[in-house]
Amino acid sequence: MALSTVLTVLYVAIYTRVAQADNVAAPINVPFNLTHFFGYDGPWQAIPVLVSDPQQLIHLYPGGTYATCIPSVNVGNYESNYTSENFPTKAGIFDLALAQPALHGSSQNYYIVGPANGGTIGPVDGSLNGGRPSNLTGEGLMISDSLSWGGIPTVSNVSISAIYNATYTLHNGTTYPLDVGFVSLGASNNQFFGDSDGTILYTANMVPLNLSATGKIPSNAWGMHIGSVYPIVKPSLILGGYDRSRVIGDVSTWSTQIVTTSDMIINLLDVSIGVETGAPPFPSFSKSGLLMDAGQVVDTLTVRPNPTVPYLYLPGDSCKAITSQLPVTYIQSLDLYSWNVTSPDYQNIVSSPSYLAFTFQVHESSDNMTIKVPFALLNLTLTPPLMDDPTQYFPCKSYSPQGPNSQSGNEYHLGRAFLQAAFIGMNWNQDIWWMAQAPGPYRLPVPDTITILNSTTELQPGGNSSAWAASWSNILKPLCIHGESVSSNCASSDTGLSTSAKAGIGIGAAFGALILLASIFFLFQHRKKQRCLAGKGTSTRQELDGKSTYFGRQSPKSTAVSPGQISELPVEERSELGSSELFSSDQTTQTTHTT
Ligand SMILES: *[C@@H]1O[C@H](CO)[C@@H](O)[C@H](O)[C@H]1NC(C)=O
Ligand SMILES: *[C@@H]1O[C@H](CO)[C@@H](O)[C@H](O)[C@H]1NC(C)=O
Ligand SMILES: *[C@@H]1O[C@H](CO)[C@@H](O)[C@H](O)[C@H]1NC(C)=O
Ligand SMILES: *[C@@H]1O[C@H](CO)[C@@H](O)[C@H](O)[C@H]1NC(C)=O
Ligand SMILES: *[C@@H]1O[C@H](CO)[C@@H](O)[C@H](O)[C@H]1NC(C)=O
Ligand SMILES: *[C@@H]1O[C@H](CO)[C@@H](O)[C@H](O)[C@H]1NC(C)=O
Ligand SMILES: *[C@@H]1O[C@H](CO)[C@@H](O)[C@H](O)[C@H]1NC(C)=O
Ligand SMILES: *[C@@H]1O[C@H](CO)[C@@H](O)[C@H](O)[C@H]1NC(C)=O
Ligand SMILES: *[C@@H]1O[C@H](CO)[C@@H](O)[C@H](O)[C@H]1NC(C)=O
Ligand SMILES: *[C@@H]1O[C@H](CO)[C@@H](O)[C@H](O)[C@H]1NC(C)=O
Ligand SMILES: *[C@@H]1O[C@H](CO)[C@@H](O)[C@H](O)[C@H]1NC(C)=O
Ligand SMILES: CC(=O)N[C@H]1CO[C@H](CO)[C@@H](O)[C@@H]1O
């Protein structure tokens, strides 16, 4: 009897242990809206968020800490800036009258937080200091209400700033309202709102923290690559994990405590232009030392990768140095640059593997790492109210931070334009964050979701720098040199045979010998096309490229579709288009069998 009790207890103990190990929650993939894109200077991708109960669909850019910032109407007695006349957004507006009753405090679907329930003025840009560079000013009321990020478990009493009056001011003084808000990626702790005497009235939840505390995700952490709309690079945001195929080469690891808590701040050492393979579309193969201020090359600049702002906010002299290499024209009213789309150089720059490279310090060492942003991703579009007609622009904006030294606010910003090509991740539990090169459209064949634990401090990259070149190789075509002048794409001399044969093959660590053999065979069979007559210095690059392990599938549609058209496409067409452009495990398996 006693023995059997002991055994039972032992069994239960062992069973529970095993069950717990099995029960470690899986990371959650946050869906984006893959059919509709947003912004007057993007297009950018956003997350469909369901706010309150009954649920209201509002699209928000992922980014920021603490409060989720949502454009709102009927915020109690506050006069809202958002009316149908001045607010043509597709993203949605939160109507607090429907989340009722609101400020008057009877039965509640949401709760007013802040001193004496009166609310406080909250940050408009998700606490990332993005207000100043993007000239965003305004007011929001701190509330708490339920949020569900595109179908993932609902969290109650989430910290929200209901933005009722916020406008961007352009360089020429013209204003327009905040069109898309920001969904907070959390913090290491919840937000507490107290009375003036220090009594805590309300606790407002952080979504990743609450999901991890309730065992729905493995940790209070996330990994993100926002991707791009044109060319199509699908976005990825994972709670409690990251997609390893989004992480290429060295991963830089920094504390969030460098300046103040919860900051993503890193040292930028240099900005350069270069070309991965083929002839350069600029006067020289590469040019570094473009990080300049006050006429001097700058050794180090404190920057914040910031998904709440759109552009590259750098010293004015850096923008001048970079754009002196490019066929662009300054747009006075916006302090941005429009591409000269009639210039052959423009076509060559945005369609070849040429890039703007950012060299960063890898923390805790003197090493550095480089993130390459292909110019193809910096061919963005201005639309009304920023420009009367859609205009292709280069997103460098002159900026000078005004925060006191070594305090938050003293940093430059690398916004969504940069983050299209960079992976960022956060482990709030360790107060560390990561940044790495992200790939182009033809990345590792299978999204490789890796769990981040509360104890995780290092991320594993899914590939090395040759994986980066390969991930772009079927969209960005190397240029040839015929005689002295740069000519059109060498790739156009490819025959139909190679195009149809070049279905996707990729090698991930997990795939091992089988696919390796298959692709060696594949290489042997099909590597007979010399891509281009290399200019001087390109031969080594050519060889490297030939060894690369990816062969993307040529998409006949990809060059014919503009973002405007994409956004009008119904779901089916768009997803068909997406799958024809991206690897999937099915395609890879098929290819392996047929080759
Ligand atoms: C994408 O946005 C459109 C327009 O707001 C909306 O109708 C659609 O339901 C959204 N899709 C998803 C998956 O949320
Ligand atoms: C809206 O904000 C602006 C400054 O950002 C301020 O001047 C204006 O008074 C505010 N309007 C209302 C109704 O609060
Ligand atoms: C998570 O949210 C639920 C619902 O609001 C709340 O009851 C719970 O205390 C939260 N847990 C933590 C650890 O924040
Ligand atoms: C912000 O707006 C002011 C005009 O109100 C303008 O002078 C300034 O250049 C703008 N700053 C940025 C970063 O656009
Ligand atoms: C949300 O917060 C309010 C006020 O603190 C509390 O009464 C309510 O129980 C909370 N809701 C949940 C689901 O925890
Ligand atoms: C991870 O850390 C969060 C706090 O950051 C905590 O609430 C959660 O319980 C932890 N999860 C595990 C599995 O230890
Ligand atoms: C744009 O490029 C074309 C072709 O090189 C050139 O003729 C034209 O002057 C350029 N336009 C501007 C505004 O620089
Ligand atoms: C980056 O590191 C390499 C190798 O250590 C070095 O040659 C290069 O000068 C460094 N670049 C910058 C901008 O510090
Ligand atoms: C400021 O620039 C915007 C965008 O180019 C333009 O629509 C607006 O008319 C300009 N305002 C003034 C006062 O020039
Ligand atoms: C990059 O990775 C590929 C595939 O794993 C490997 O064949 C190649 O040697 C690596 N290149 C470098 C420079 O490490
Ligand atoms: C630049 O971007 C626009 C809009 O996405 C696209 O239509 C155009 O084809 C791109 N230009 C090139 C040369 O790829
Ligand atoms: C109430 C308020 O501040 N309204 C502002 C809303 O935004 C427009 C610009 O689109 C301003 O002109 C209004 O003053």
UniProtKB/TrEMBL annotation:
Q: Does the keyword Signal apply?
A: yes
Q: Where is the composition biased (Polar residues)?
A: 551-565, 577-586
Task: List, alphabetically, the SUPFAM superfamilies matched.
Answer: Acid proteases
Query: What are the record keywords, sorted?
Result: Membrane, Signal, Transmembrane, Transmembrane helix
- Segments spanning the bilayer are 503-524
Kindly indicate where the leader peptide sits in this chain: 1-21
Q: Which InterPro entries match?
A: Peptidase_aspartic_dom_sf (IPR021109)
Annotated region (Disordered) at 535-595
Q: What is this protein called?
A: Peptidase A1 domain-containing protein
